Amino acid sequence: MDDSSDKYIRFDSNGYCNYCNKAIENLNKICNDKKKTIQLAEIIHTIKRDGIGHDYDCLMGISGGLDSAYLAYVGAKKWGLRICAVHIDDGFDTDMAVQNIKRICNHCNIKLITIKPDKEQYLNLIRAFIRAEVPNIAIPQDNILLAILYQYAQKHNIKYFLSGSNLSLESIIQRGNTYTNTDVYHIKAINRRFGEGKI
Question: Residue 195 and residue 130: Cα distance in Å, rounded?
Answer without folding.
Answer: 10
